[in-house]
Amino acid sequence: MTLRWADYVMGRDDTSQSVEELWRAALPNGGVTLFVLGAGFDPRAVVALVRFLDLAGPQLVRVLSIALATTTADRLTVQLAQANRGAMEAISTKPNVDWRTLPYPDVAEASSAGLLLARSVLSDGHLNDVRYVVVDVSALPGGIYFPLIGALLQYCDEGKLEAEIQVFACDNPELDEAIVVAGLGQPATVGGFKHGLDLETSRSGTRVWAPVLGSGHKEALAILSDRLRADETCPVLPFPARRPRLADDILLEYRQLLFETVFVEPRNFIYGDETNPFDLYRQLSSLQERYRTNLEPIGDSTVVVSTHASKLLSVGALLAAYEAHLPVVSVPAADYALAQDVDVPRLAEQNRLVCLWLHGAPYR
Amino acid sequence: MISYQNPFRSRASEQQRDQRAFLKTFGPGAIELLPDSLWDRLLVLRSAPGAGKTSLMRIFTVESLIAITEREDLDDLSDRLTEVGGLGDKGPSHLGVLLNLERDYRALVDVVSSGETSLRLFFRLLDIRIIVSVMRAALTFAGKRFPDDAGSFRLRLREGRFGTEDAVHRLGGYEGQDIFETSRNVERSMLLALDSLIPVDWATHEYGHADLYSLRVISDADVLIDGAPLTVKPLIMLDDGHRLHRTQRDELLRRLADRDLEVARWYSERYEALTPKEILSELGQRGRDYELVELENVARGITPNGERQRFRPGRFERVLVDIGNRRAASSLKLYADEFEDFFKLLVVDENELLSGREDEILYKLRARLEEIAGHDGRYQVWLQAARRLTGYAAALRYRELEILIARDLQRAQHELIEFVLADAEADERSSSALREAAGSRLAQEFDLPYYAGTEMIPKLGSQNIEQFLSLSGDIFAEMLARITLQRRPTISPVRQDRIVKRASDLLWREIPRRIPHGTEVQQFAEAIVTMAREENAKPTMPYAPGVTGTALLMSDRTRLMNPEIRRSVPGADALFICLGEAVAHNIVSVELDQSVKGRRYMVIYLNRLLCPRFGLPLGRGGYREKRLEVMSKWMTGPPPPAAKVADLMNVELSL
User: Fold this and answer.
1) B9–A108 CB contact, under 8 Å
2) What's the CA gap between A268 and A245, in Å, rounded?
3) What are the distances in angstroms from CA A200 to CA A259, B103, B154?
4) What is the pLDDT of residues A235-255, one digit of tens each?
5) Could you tell me if B111 lies within 8 Å of chain A, comparing CB atoms?
6) Residue A238 near residue A213, CB atoms below 8 Å
7) Stated pTM of the model
8) Cβ contact (<8 Å) for B12 and A256?
9) Residue to substitute from A154, A201, A318, interface B, most B β-carbons within 10 A
């Protein structure tokens, strides 16, 4: 099995490989840089953009801001959204910034939004003359950045786009946990990642569920467990993690689901490095390969992924799902809000920028 | 060490995958929820999530019917299915196929820009899935494999109705292999385009068609396997219709309701209380052109005018007890050599409810009665009769007399000569609702266990099988703990009460995370709770067994569904949204068109499992009506402070 990102390129604030170095290497001599970000209440929304624009200097940066509406009346959440709007307005007036806003689509099915946005990015002229694309997932929900990154990679793979593709994440697992779901929608496949799940005309095969676990998602996991009815479950725990007991805490939190409802075999647990998405990418890719090879004589097998963890681990799952055509399922949130009593400035001290170079010069 | 499994918690995976386990734990009594006319017209099933729609339909799938026929230990289930026509003398009489409408259809509206194209794609996708499901079921019935034996399947038209032949060709033809290949190609290419990350030009695709042809074909054709016609008739069951877009749903229902179809078809969807336009009224007359079953209402014994009452109040609870006993039986035998039923292990000696504080409680109750009526000769016989009782019966009687005396003292006009009230008169004025009110107040005032016993636990299910199983799972977990300690798995009322209160609190705390607009839903529920607590604290308990709900005039409900009126009534928009979510997620249940004193109401009750958290009784019947303006105002104020919410909960949650 040859993995596309076996030799990967990643920069991180607290390592010797700085993110700025990777940005510099990817910045084109000519052409336009497209920077895609989410405009909601997440306090990390402009952290990467501000640093990136400092480095880009006079080069033209086309910023595509995806409007994320929130209906919550929570005071802190509303204040943070206002602060982000103010910061973005200030940035949009800079001379080297071509600021564009992509409205959130009005959809009947929540999971369609990401697909429609991804198609819009590809087809509405935002990629004209673009040589370098950055997707900053820091303030984007998975339902948006999965199809978006998938679409960009596919466009490049089909030769329709010649560009460097980098994903930025302002890594802060504590903040990821502090952003809580306010109401759940219906379970569905993530746009662009159905990959043959639930075809009525297929013969039934073995279904393996690999939920990438983080705290605070008991309800979503229960819904997915009911929806998928997997033959086997291989939960992914974040380990090593910044907080060494995190995996233990997650096990305790979901013990009823894992051990009384879906009967996870202890040997089925997968451990993914919380700080390195390529580690989880490798693990999930090999899981799929293992099941495919071992169960081939008795039929098809499908590893279905769902992500309930930090941004970085989710990106790892995305890469595996894109490359190995794994279905990705989720329970889209009706809304998000910040948990009560969150000390945002204190949490912001833990921000670490991470840059994942997914396509372009290093892989040629 | 033995690893124990909780049979109530494995439902999500094992029960659903394992046909044997599913059949063994299915409560045959639930089949009686269905009406008499099942096969010749559209049957619409409605309920809150978890009420058992899917299980009810799954029992009619060909796989289930075959398994029930083959097994000898499912006689009661077999008998019930024979009674309703699901099984015949030689096995299944219907080729039941169950299709979920949750998958892929709704997204069509978003990703296909034209509404007409999107509807055409919807019909085509549903058509190929229906016909392939029928093929799969037919092959299963004949002991063949899908799709390997697709070549054995064939359609043969019975009569040359106009358009049917064209419909057959649209589905791939008469031969099974052709139908399968066509369906597979269409499904794959359609879903690839639907899920494509790269933009799709739908104008260049020829995927859709203008009608739902599969039902017409199945209706007018015989299914042949290896040339021999099948004796069983197809039954198409479409589950989770609420997941369709409104346009898709309405168009589908119009086609399903066609009385020319000679195929049994069932359709299920989630109950919605605030649907502005009820499509069913356009489809004809209920009972003649279609059947509508609102599962919770049937379970509660509420039926539309003139319809036979299938479930008397309390009957559904007995079905739940049966389901619980079936679930637990083998685990209890295996783990504890216990042959008593699960619910037998929850039987409560009512004196245990006093938690060993009989003397203290009776003394205080007597003292209170003496204070309000001790010097009034009118109540002496009542008091003397009560003094002869002991234990919980005495406590309950004292508390009941307190209410009766308070009511008697409040009479508008006292008699000229006050007669001594006979003991029989107390019995006459008593009722089960009043005793329930007295029991609830007693538990509140003396911090006694209340939510325990074989009658309480099924009631807490709130006519919802999933909720009932979840609560039973919590209780069974305690049984497993006792088994581990080598004790008999009986659970004391104190422990039952605590388990129930913890489950109640969990349900409450999950609302904001689980339900869209959950904070508003909590705000609405808290307004009901506040009103209920005020009413129930009155000495006369005017709404025995106690208020646990509210009601809106049907005319106000109509106003609430009008966007223009909502704009003019502060809070009405929030009420409309939150009430819709609360009903959809079973936080409240709704009874439409209830008649009270000549007026028609929509009665809204709290989910019974929320009642323990707030110390409310479980009996239904107590509600206070409110005008739309008042109810809307509940949504305009700030949510009650967290501290107040905590005060409401006088329970120790740690187990």
Assistant:
1) no
2) 19
3) 30, 10, 19
4) 999 999 989 999 999 999 999
5) yes
6) yes
7) 0.90
8) no
9) A201
